[in-house]
Design goal:
Pfam families: PilX_N. InterPro entries: PilX_N_dom (IPR025746). This is Pilus assembly protein PilZ. There is one protein chain. With about 190 residues, the protein is an alpha+beta fold. It has one domain (about 5-185). About 40% of the residues lie in helices and about 25% in strands. It is built from 4 helices and 4 strands; from the N terminus they run αααββαββ. It has helices spanning about 5-65, 65-70, 80-85, 150, and strands spanning about 105, 130-140, 155-170, 175-185. A 4-stranded antiparallel sheet has the order 1-2-3-4. Strand 3 (about 155-170) and strand 4 form a beta hairpin.
Length: about 190
């Protein structure tokens, strides 16, 4: 059987089209894979920053319940420190992670220790340099609502605080934050 040059040309063109199609599919698959990998890394970093923000919140409550820290006159827990600082007005003030006006605590890779103010700088995680810190501000003192107002009658009030846990991964320019409002039963101010 004899193949003429016209048929050979068509076979060559078809082969080139198939090769170009396979190349485009391969490049598309690699590009998609790289995009998914980038999304996975971004999600991992966001998750690490969120974990750091949650750890910062837990650190404030850890110190606020630390029996040794609470009786040590040389140290102050973050809620007491915030209570002694300027009052936070939710209508006019903003509790930002980068605002040093409010009480700051940090959680580092060393963890939380009983009897310590956690103010040292350092990474929360060293694998992917992650920072974990909190800002605490006193909002107001008010009568406790519910069953807690029976505890001490008029001698007890609720002290309301806003606490912002902040976390950031060094390779990212953004900060992840979580905010809670806490009311602590305490003696009424005179």
């Amino acid at each position: 059987m004899h193949v003429n040059s016209r048929q050979q040309g068509m076979v060559l063109i078809l082969a080139l089209l198939v090769l170009i199609s396979l190349t485009i599919l391969g490049v598309s698959a690699v590009s998609s894979s790289l995009g998914q990998n980038k999304m996975a890394v971004t999600m991992q970093r966001s998750g690490m920053a969120f974990d750091a923000a949650e750890a910062a919140l837990a650190g404030v409550f850890f110190e606020a319940e630390d029996e040794i820290l609470l009786v040590d006159p040389a140290r102050t827990d973050p809620l007491s420190e915030a209570r002694q600082a300027a009052v936070f007005d939710p209508e006019n003030d903003t509790l930002m992670c980068n605002d040093a006006r409010w009480t700051t605590r940090r959680v580092t890779a060393a963890g939380l220790s009983v009897g310590a103010e956690h103010t040292n700088t350092g990474n929360y995680q060293n694998d992917m340099r992650t920072d974990s810190w909190s800002r605490t501000a006193f909002v107001r003192e008010q009568a406790c609502r519910g069953s807690s107002n029976v505890i001490g009658g008029s001698n007890v009030n609720c002290h309301v605080f806003v606490i912002k846990g902040c976390g950031a991964v060094a390779e990212r320019n953004s900060v992840v934050a979580n905010t809670v409002t806490a009311a602590v039963v305490a003696p009424a101010s005179q």
